[in-house]
Fold each of these.
Amino acid sequence: MSAGFYFGVEVFLNGLMAGVMYSLVALGFVLIFKASGIFNYAQGVMALFAALTLVGFQSGQIPFAHLINAVFGTELHHFGWKMPTILALIFTLMVMILFAFLVEKFILKHLVNQEPIILFMATIGLAYFMEGFGDLMWGSEIKKLDIGIPQGGNFWLEEKTATLGGDGFYGFYLDNLDIWATVCAIILVASLVVFSQYTKTGRALRAVADDHQAALSVGISLRAIWVIVWSIAGFVALIAGIMWGSKSGVQFSLSLIALKALPVLMLGGFTSIPGAIIGGLIIGVGEKMFEFLIGAPFLGGATENWFAYMLALLFLVFRPQGLFGEKIIERV
Amino acid sequence: MRITKLAAAAVAVTMAAAPVMADLVFPSLSYRTGPYAANGIPFADGYEDYFTLVNARDGGIGGVPARVVKCETGYNTEKGVECYESTKGEGALVYQPLSTGITYQLIPKATADGIPVHSMGYGRTSAANGKVFSNIFNYPANYWNGASLAVNHILDENGGDIKGKKIALLYHNSAYGKEPIRTLEELAKKHGYDLSLLAVDHPGQEQKSQWLQIRREKPDYVLMWGWGVMNQVAIQEAANIRFPMDNFIGVWWSGSEVDVVPAGEGANGYKALAMHAVGDDFPVFDDLRKYVVDAGTAAGAGDQLGTVLYNRGMYAAMLAVEAAKTAQALHGVAEINPAQMRDGMEALEMTEAKMAALGMPGFGPEFTVTCENHGGPGLGAVQQWNATDKTWSLISDYGPSDMEVIGKLIMEDSSAFAAENNISESCN
Amino acid sequence: MFYREAGEFKTTYAKDQQTFPIALDRWGYFITLALAFLAVPFFINDYWANAVVLPFLIYVIAALGLNILTGYCGQVSLGTGGFMAVGAYASYKLMTAFPDLNIVFVILLSGGITALVGMLFGLPSLRIKGFYLAVATLAAQFFLVWLFNKVPWFYNYSASGQISAPERTLFGQAVTGANAVPAISYLFCLVFVVVLAWAARNLTRGANGRKWMAIRDMDIAAEIIGVNPLKTKLTAFGVSSFYIGVSGALLFAVYLGAAEVGEAFGINKSFLVLFMIIIGGLGSIFGSFAGAAFMVLMPVLLKNIMVGQFGFPTDIAAHFEFVIVGGLIVVFLIVEPHGLAMLWRIAKEKLRLWPFPH
């Protein structure tokens, strides 16, 4: 086999890994959409906010320091202690649960039975709010996120495979962070499945996803379910924020990862967790292979952004509800 | 009691309304928010702090206090327009638009309004031709100089011969990122290196494809025209594929602390172009600490002194102040107007003696601005990152760029602009 | 009491079918028009024109366009930014390729070109519905932006890919370029707004509008009563894109003067215009105006209050701006999901009786 073939395989593998990273973001969308029919645009900002909060706790930053300093003329920055990662994670999770609670109390409760587009807009409003709020709370500089996940190429794999493709090939390159992300995603999805299949709350979640009215009538509290779902979405956002944040540092642009998740959602279907994963893999592989085979050599590169959408569009023309979405039934 | 209060208020109002001409207005179109805030904050701090220093230490510029009018653009073009319109009425002397989009916007507007624009190391490169762009200045160096400086650095490292070497340009897929391409292509013809172009779409969080391609093609050098999150990811990815950091050179907007710190140790040895000195080992920083930071009038938290972008903001402010002084001397009035400021910028002469007197010996290159050349001589240096000390340091002197090639390109592009917009080239 | 329909007797069909059948509305409309054409040009200065009024007028056109598609025909689109870019680049190419072509035709032709592109990207709407369509239109958004960035022909092979509008005149007055007087640019945009709003009003009242609404309310039922979904959806995409193209051309040529596709016509533009029509009110012409006014004025107002009046540091003010605008959007949706147009209707309803309710 020629080196070119192995490079193709390498791009394919990396596409899979990138796909997992997209799926991590897409998962949060699916969870909320399933349970409440809300297309939650704020998911990306939630990832940013979660990552900001995590770093803030870790490094002992004083929330709203900049605002306090501006108002009272003080010189506050840090509490002066560093929090162990695990503790910071727990605290961040608590903040995300609080956030879910507040969202339910101040937004969702008041928007029951509205049209989907109104709910969608409300989440964009929420995204704006969170962007401003997150920056006010933790400042807008770039923060280094390090919770001990190894980064960089996996050299073991690189050396083991270096002899495969002859002279021009020097082993497969895979990023350790991506491997970790894959492991995390597998654990995450497995535990979500276990949670929704085998626990009482999980069953309630599925009941709500199937039919709000019926769920209400058998005594499931819709509001409690929403808080739980948004908390889980917050947790997923935290994982996504950690993975993406380790790569680029925690900064404003982190919220833009939502745009990477949208084609994944479209392709996989808004209502399917396996869809989010498989959609992510297809998008990841598709855009990387297209860039490798056609984009970079013939079109001048940087095709990934639109190609992901085009690919999803292509799938949609044949399956308008996405690969795994629930069939849209229209009655007159 | 009430009457005195009212009177005081009335006085305050007249005081506030009166000093329309009693001070020199320097608007600061900062971007302390939005996706590029991390870069915008230190620059804006440096820019504003230097004026505070000039007021506190020297009593203003030629006896007239400088006033900084702040306006937040968030790097957004439309907000930039709003900022321009809202500040120009206050007698703004010179604009630092701080974004490619806003610069392009202001080129025709500011020219029509007769206000000079100083796009220091960014904006439209061909604005260096002062015969076409009468009010736009981009000294001391522009992107095309930058491209040439990077190539010169590579030439130096290889003893002047880079025939057959592979150089890749990793660029932000926007007006800004595309600037160096033409220069690099021209230089490739001259020096015989192979140039490959790798575009990264905004925002640039996902660059796996590009870096796998770099890993496959093994270029000898990678140049980067990156911005925002793209810088951090690129440096991280370069470290991941174990690309030799010494051979990775960023433009001056890809070479600040915020770009390299997230990559940690991996970024050690990364190089970037520089148009001014780094670090806080200059007497002017003592003054800044004494008059500004300790006095509690610093624009930011006061912890950015000596960082690359703070220094750049300060350098920009220093050049503005010196141009204002030149204008005052030229026209013999202390309270200059924008048109006089423009003349001052066009007659600006930065000498080593001048910089030393300001407490900034060797802070930037020596240069003179003329009507024909608003871009200065295009001198620049290379700086390198040391991850252990977390410091940048200059590893070369301010060297010249290939003006033979660049000059021709500037003439070409500016005359195309002149033809499109019916501008007759002239020097007044 | 103050707003009344009573006492109006329409004796001819023409009277019954006029755009504003109620006298009070009509008078309000004429007075507004008179103010806009005769009074405002004498008071407008650079700041008001460039910071508030021009963007407002231009976004009104975009909002009208998107409202036709989303509000009247029910097809959610997030490709507005991309379509505006088509209008902008079309106008740039036309202006530079045919320097003698009248600027009015340049703008209209740009709209026409955008309409064609819009119809092309509207084709998937026959299969894809709802949010899937919204996300699918993002494909248009990203592809168009990439295309204008990549192909040098679109920006006349300039070094950086920025386009700048050359000066064009109308009746001897500069309309585009840096030397345009604010009053002239204002009037130029205003004419477009008035004509297009009038056209939109009448389009949506007529057969086409009814077809659009039938498709919006229930497409299968509409098909059964004889509405051709292909034709109807594509006309909606076409007309909507025409409006959006015109607004993109004006945004570039008259307001910004120079533009770069990724920055000026990014995904944020799509969201901004969508916000306008939702805040303003889906399926309402007045709503497009109100929404555009809200989204353009609000940030400027907030900034001027916080920075100008209270002396906030600019960065904190900008963060608060986000918080407040985001919060207001949510509050609005909770209080009145049908937008400002609904509030206006309610106000009129109240004014009928007020101050003597019962």
Amino acid sequence: MYLEAALNIATMVSILLLVALGLAIVFGLMNILNMAHGELVTIGAFTASLVQVHSGSFWLGVVAAIIVGALVGWVLERGLIRYLYDRPMGVILATWGVSLIIQQGLLLLFGPSPQIVYTPIEGSITLFGNPYPRYRLVLIAAAVLTIAATAIVMNRTRFGLDLRTVIQNREVAELVGIDSRRIFMFALVGASALAALAGALVAPLIKVVPTMGADYLAPSFFVVIVGGAGSLMGVVAGSAFIGGLRTLLDYQVPTTLSQALVLIAAVVIVRFRPRGLLPA
Amino acid sequence: MTLQASSSSVKATTQNKGGLASISLSAGLMAAVLAYPLLLSSYQMDVARDALIFALLALSLDFLWGKAGVLSFGQAAFFGMGAYAVAIVGPMVPNDNGALAGMVTGIGLAVLVSGIVGYFLIYGGVRGAYLTIVTLALTLIARNVATSWASVTGGEAGLIGAPPPGLSIGGWSVTASDSVSLYLVVAIVLSVTLTALWAASRGRLGRVLTAIQDDEAKARALGYDTSGYLLAVFVLSSGLAAIAGGLYASAAGYVAPDLVGLLLSTQAIVHVAFGGRGTLIGPVLATVLVIHVQQEVSSFSYALWPLLLGAFFIAMVFLFPKGLLPLISDLVHRLVPRRDRGGTA
């Protein structure tokens, strides 16, 4: 029972981490909120489903989802967001429009019924006498690896150094010759790829429908609000808090109530730590 | 009507943007928009009534977004609180006071929720995008409550039996149950609200809010409790949204969870952006216009509307950030130079 709860929390936190990480970095960089971020999760899940149905391989679908996600992020940045860097409200409205178009477009193309996704790894594994689905363990491992890779990129590479410099102080970063817009473009592409990856990984566990993105948008924003924008540790703390609380509450009370309680908890935390638990 | 009467009394003090001419023009236009449906069939009048209710919702958002700079996706949540309160509490109350009791309950609930959430966030220093996201979450949760708390809200099916607006004191009672009187009730509430918000915005409150939008730190340094002002506007706007919701349920006689969704909040944002945020009357006129167009488009293709909405958001940000109606009025002013105009809109 406790082990199962812990593993369920780990699954939820892994997904949230993947979705919120990009959002937090993008927000920390430019104070820009991409309202179509949830649709990138949707696109990832749809890509995984389509590729799996046609090629038979789920993992090929995951790779395809990452590529498609990165591509969509790139188009979004080049075509839209780069013109709106100094208008955060404009970004919210324009990307909200994109989100509506993607949702409705997918609905027109694929209809409202869930897409088919087969679990790539069947069966369960017994841990300390408790059976647990193998795939979920793989999902947790994949998320941990991705986060570790992102941490390495952020802390050990030239790009990561530039990225952290822009997050800390954009003007100074520009003064020392960092092209903050270029950094931002790569960050948005990376964030979109991560969101699509999350969508692909979670696809076998949920209903893959055009409106699924909305389920991830608000929680991942809460992760950023609670954890703090622009810091990896903040996202980890925020995801652990939001994901953990949600999963634990889901055992005790109806989903609706647990959502509301998480919102209340997040709101109260913001009152006392306005910049998040672990800000950049 | 109501609007004309009050606008003439404030005329003497006008000096802000828009002179006498543009105020009487707005008032006249508004009166025409309000009076025109009275000539139509009762079905078309019902449609026009719903448009005015959504105009009230847009107005509540414009006061928050246009005047105080807080973009909110939460209007649908508060609209839903008003609507469901009338549908749930209304039938329990005897005589003809059901709608009123439900309305008061709904407003109370909206004020309570927005007050608590707003207090923690606004006094916590949360501004801009963060605030927007929390309001978005409010709507998502409200929608979930409406669909999953079936024993109270009727679930997906919703509730029927919301009482029509009425009042009963002692032996005397009045109910608005036919199309014309329902329309008039809604039109009167809308005009009174519009006039009140417009008058409030012209005074000290409006100027403080403008200062906060321009530079909150400076406004605070000048001694204004900026958080207090923002919280008050947030709570007021939520209460107004609840009134719109209550009117909707009361006039339609039913509520359904579709009312509470993000789409409703999105449409309110479109109406405000289209009409020009901060102009108050613009969003009202825009709502009437957009809902008319929406019906035409939906009768042609139901799936097309959300796509158009999405495209509209993008076009708006790039092409007419101040709104479409202000753009048109700007063009008209430029093409038709008028000596008597006080300033450009």
Amino acid sequence: MAMIVAGIGTSHVPSIGAVVDSGRQNTPEWKPLFDAYEPVRTWLSDERKVDAVIVIYNDHACDFSFSKYPTFAVGAASEYAIADEGFGVRPLPPVKGDLELSTHICRHLVYEEEFDITICKEMAVEHGLLVPMDLCFPQQGEWPVKVIPVQVNVLQHPIPTALRCFKLGAALRRAVESYDRDVNVAVMGTGGMSHQLHGERFGHLNSDFDNWFLDKIEADPQAICDMTHFDLMEQAGAEAVELIMWLTMRGAMTPDAQRIHRNYYAPMTTGMGLITMQDAA
Amino acid sequence: MVDQLKPGKSIKDTYVFDLKMSERGMRINRLAEWLNGAENRDAFKSDMDAVMDQFELTGEEKKLILDNDWLNLVKAGGNIYNVVRIAAIFDVGLYPLGAQQLGMSYEEFLETRNEKGAT
């Protein structure tokens, strides 16, 4: 039987990808971030023995356009191309999919959970998905785990509510647990933390909020589910509303899941947060 | 219905990208999304007017792009990630783009950051 063996919440700040590509992980400015992920990588590969990861992320008007922008889109392919986000294609191998598990998840979400997702046979993936992969499952010629991409519209309002994102996580858990092959699955919620990139509020950071969020995502996710998008954007910046995707990870874990790792670093314009969890033994 | 965006209330200096903004910025956003390919970027660089005409930009929208007026491109409905794509054509990165929205020089903006080397 397939199992959820790990939950991860992490930022997906695009500059991290540029640092990886230019090998600057050990500079004084970036070491505090990358050092925090080292034990996470070991934990995921050696202890949790992750085979596949469901990545909850948002496409930044890259593979999808605002002309047709799916609220929830799930990949059902055996491979996902690396997208050109407007600055060239990063030197990365294509992301490997798990077609059979993806297919099962799509069927389960639509038939059993009334989540009528957009199903994508082709999807090019960008920093929203790739930066978390760089940090947690880095490639060395090929990626070490298979990926099920779950794309969420958090850019063009109306976007799904925080509670709906949490419920999607619970539905994904039931999907995984009803899959009859032995696969160790991690669920990764990505984005945030506090940041605003547009308007005269550019550079808005709220580290107090970010730390509150890290407390609550672990112990009291309902407090975040109760927030409106307005409240989240007012506190953490308009682009930080993508933090609702962390709730999908949390919804996939048991209520009493234990936190394993936690980190926070806010060097420039975005709070870079990390939390990992596993179900209580 | 709980309105997630609290009608009548606003967040200072914030232009939430809703369907109204998306409608307003449709031409700008379509052009910017088309820049997700090297050949298209080259075509835009070699003849900006032709590409802006192809996407039916208004005179005002064209001027905002040619003037590199990022703040007003946002106000005209350009989604920030698309404005970043257009700025990249002019070799303007995210942080200088942000500094301009704040009315600061890039150097002044960096001084406001916790770790200004982490660009």
Amino acid sequence: MEYQRLQQLTKTTINNNNFIQTALLSDLRIDGRRPLDYRKLTIKFGRDDGSSEVKLGDTYVISFVTAQLLQPYKDRPNEGSLSVFTEFSPMADPSFEPGRASESAVELGRIVDRGLRESRAIDTESLCVVSGKLVWAIRIDIHVIDNGGNLVDAANVAALAALLTFRRPECSLTGEDGQQVVVHPPEERDPLPLIIHHLPIAVTFGFFSNENLVVIDPTYHEESVMTGRMTATLNANGDVCSIQKAGGEGVSQRVIMNCLKLAHVKAGDITAKIRDTVEIHNTERALRKIKRHSSSVAVDVCGTTARLGGKQNQSVGDNDVNHLDQLKLKDEVNDMECETMSSGQLQSSKSDGVSKNFIGGPSSWDPYSECVDSDSLKASLASRGIAVKQSGLSTPHSKQNDSRSEIKREEQAEEIKTNSPNVGQSNEGKTLKDAVKPKRKRKKRASTNARN
Amino acid sequence: METKPSTNFVDKLVCPGDVVLDLSTMTNQTIKLGGGLRQDCDTISVTKAGRLRFSKPNKYWVESSQKRYVPHAEDSVIGIVVDQRSDNFLVDIKGPTLAFLPVLAFEGGTRRNIPKFEVGTSIYVRVVTANPEMNPELSCTDASGKAAEFGALKEGYMFECSTGLSRMLLSSPTCPVLEALGKKLSFEIAVGLNGRVWVNSASPSTTIIVANAIMNSEALSGVQQKIMADKLLQKIQ
């Protein structure tokens, strides 16, 4: 037992400690990076909604997001809750003990939690179903599979990626008193994504006993050598959401300001990366959906519109072909660059009113066309911020666009101008202020609703 | 004594449960079994995944690449000193248990001159005994009692790799990646069979290049290793 404890203490040798520091003096790191280079970040998604795998160098973290209907906290009757759970497998690092959450596991969970919560990145009020009675409780599980250093950043990205792809089932209120909650299965109504205002990205810096040495994204070996660590959580606009400073090494103000500047740049890069991969994933997801619901089996949807149209020509009935041709024509006219025709675009052109019954299958594709309940209205309002006034004018279709394919918004905005003039504000334009603003407005709305 | 292997599984990938030798057809010969093989009545079956190896005249074993090390006698390994006791150093050699290095197991070691090793020193040692259910015993001398390069490794950088890679680095003829690097760069290297490699050179950049080249050659064939090393050397010149 005691031997095991000793074994865990040997994280690194004296040789390596000295070597890492001397190499850093000449701007070299043991994996060939320069001090301010980030490692390669890979994001993958699982088959289910709300699961992600993130690789940062050797570090490997997976994350799942789940939701549950629960009673809200008494002091916040109309806000959903958000909780982060971490699991450090002993396979990742021999120093992780099974069962008991170690100090670093707790710290990691807290940093991720704080970054999301304090900056109000997730709109928790849109998670309310019945005020004071039922809200969605979002749970983020983070599992560390391999520890190659800098778990915090990897876990944070994993959590964000999982949140972005998470879909909660839609629910509506029925019954005579309007208090009966019906949760619609995903086959019946399309599940809804969370409303995420901005992405707080954690960027970790390592400090060494020599004051001038600063590294970004420390590896496992560097972590055992460095004497101080700072995790800054920023979004792409440079708003600082939280800072966590650990380790004994004191850091001067000048260095911290420098670090924040660097972190801002990295946060922008990482945000773009996450958004890109999420968009690709959403496209794939939507394509999968088309496959699943379509009545004709032989539809192989892949690649460009032209090919898609061609293939469908062979297999699908006349009705669909007509629609597709229309769609194709429309696209050509619109001069949309459709190298890979995303279904987000498909959707958008659909909402233009070109082809309502484009998908041959059951009409579960568009949940809003059937009914709009007050909750989903509230939910989509919350994402809109300033455009609350116009929301009355906008049709349900444009709303769906708005929440579903976020990245494409700007393009679509021009097309669907006739429907709703002000929907197309991009996510990048939002700041922390925007995240806070709609809250007040919504409170007013909520109170008026209650009066009604 | 027959020197040809009596099975056609040699140098092929084998999985646990594979029957590689049938003893009933080879009654008049003796064979020696190494790791990863076991005898079930008249057959020899495999207990771990890897490549079946044969050495003349009659030795068979299964070779695999893994992150954990199982100590074997007469292996040269790199250990990290974890603690000092009155008559032993406790050394981590990536095995299931810590290994003992007797304080007298040095060239000319007496009670008077016990070497001083700080905790965290890396040392190049030889495994003397390795029995299951016992801590392995190490020595800083070769079989004849000479120091023979064993001892503390000063400076340099030590990294961990799989046991397969360290075996490849030690194989003869010299591993292509080392050969290619050695033509252009001068560096010192110590490879432990327990999957630890220590590299030292005059400048940190050389050490980093060598270390990364070796780590990258884990999954490469001989030719690929050579190409990779040549490209790397071109880049830095």
